[in-house]
Amino acid sequence: MREENIRALLMRREYPALKVVLNSMNNVDLASLLENFTEKEYTILFRLIQKEKAAEVFTEMSSPMQETLINAFTRSEIKELFDDMYMDDTVDIIEEMPANVVEQILDVTDRETRQIINRLLKYPEDSAGSIMTVEYVDLKKNMTVEQALKKIKRVGIDQETIYTCYVIEQKRLLGIVTAKSLLLNESNVLIKDIMETNLIYVNTHEDKENVSKLFHKYGLLAIPVVDFEHCMVGIVTFDDAMEVWQDEVEEDMSIMAAMQPNEESYFGTSVISHAKHRILWLLFLMLSATITGAIITKYENAFQTLPLLVSFIPMLMDTGGNCGSQSSTLIIRGIAVDEIRFHDLFKVIFKEFRVAVLVGFVLAAVNGLRIMLIYHSLRMAVLIGLSLIATIILAKIVGCCLPLLAKKIGLDPAIMAAPLITTLVDTCSILIYFNIATHLFSL
């Protein structure tokens, strides 16, 4: 309804009314809404957004929209936009833009800002330094609470957060002071007497995924970032950490579905790119599955002697793959939230073994009863029961071990997810099945 209202106002060129509607909306909702308009339309609409609000809306837009707007803006408009933007957001945008657009952005920034941008861009892509911001409130330990509050009022408008302030001396991080502490203490109390010195901080080269886990673990709003000399260089805020967390989840989901990770949106990715991101894994899994086919061909004489053997292969393979997928999914999740580590390997194996035994006996009993009722064959019931128990135990152990081993050697545990586990377990389950059948039926 709101989109239709905006379209109607835009067609009638009622810009004052449009300005009221746009500026009353939430920043994230507004950025999402603008994606439904043409380039010409959202360029007009964006210019109607208040200057202070425009920068926040801009950071929530997709890269193609941002590029279109920058190319449509005058030099002064670009300067106004990026002057109101936090430094980490500016760096994120620059990293996504083509060279000609980056030149336009850097051309309107002052020398000091360009130096900060260049410094942030030099940090490794997956490091804390690449997602930090240099906009924070710093205090001196000999300041009083009154002096600290005055400084916050003076500079806080340009900082990313004022809920946590950082006590610094000769660039070294000494402690932190929360806004709550400042408000609850008398005005003449010294900062050094109320600052917290038991600090949680990260190094500039710390993996950004580990940084995001610290927010989850300690419930923080911001984490200070220091260099190798313990000098304060910036902070990572909660919103940036959550973006990292979301990116990691999306990447793991892609890998677990046997696809290469893709940072673009679904509709923003071409058909060719979609196919390219999927086809390599599918080719690998398809070729791997030929091993299972070769094993089945090897036992074709057994089929001729006992054709009934063929009918149970799909059930056995599916059950093994599903059991392996269950275990691998649980272990990958445990690794992601730091609940399970490599030194827990034998504890995990023992637990999954016990689960597999229970599951295996229940499924074997159900299938054995079904086979006795339908085929009246005790030996076939024993064959399927033993094959199921052995396959489930193997699948559970493979499913729990491979993600931990992948993590140990520096690979993404998500690689060892359903498609790969299923392919491995399929091969093993066929070998188990026919070996037991050969001995039981003397084939």
Work out the oligomeric state of the chains in this entry. Answer: single chain
Strand content: 5-15%
Average of the residue pLDDT scores: 82
Number of domains: 3
Q: Biggest sheet, in brief?
A: 3 strands, mixed
Q: Span from first to last CA?
A: 72 Å
Helix and strand sequence: HHHHHHHHHHHEHEEHHEHEEHHHHHHH
Keywords: CBS domain, Cell membrane, Magnesium, Membrane, Metal-binding, Transmembrane, Transmembrane helix, Transport
Organism: Anaerostipes caccae (strain DSM 14662 / CCUG 47493 / JCM 13470 / NCIMB 13811 / L1-92)
Subunit structure: Homodimer.
Subcellular location: Cell membrane; Membrane
Mind explaining what this structure looks like?
This protein has three domains: 2-122, MgtE N-terminal domain-like (MgtE N-terminal fold, Alpha Horseshoe), CATH 1.25.60; 138-237, CBS-domain, CATH 3.10.580; 271-441, Tetracycline Repressor, domain 2. It is 66% helix and 6% strand. The protein is built from 22 helices and six strands. It has helices spanning 2-11, 15-23, 27-34, 39-47, 51-59, 63-72, 75-83, 87-96, 99-107, 111-121, 128-131, 145-155, 179-184, 191-194, 208-218, 238-256, 271-298, 300-305, 313-336, 345-375, 378-408, 418-441, and strands spanning 138-139, 164-169, 172-178, 202-203, 222-226, 232-237. The strands form two sheets. It has a three-stranded mixed sheet. A three-stranded mixed sheet has the order 4-5-6. A hairpin with a 5-residue loop joins strand 5 and strand 6. 30% of the residues are buried. GO terms for molecular function: magnesium ion transmembrane transporter activity; metal ion binding. This is Magnesium transporter MgtE.
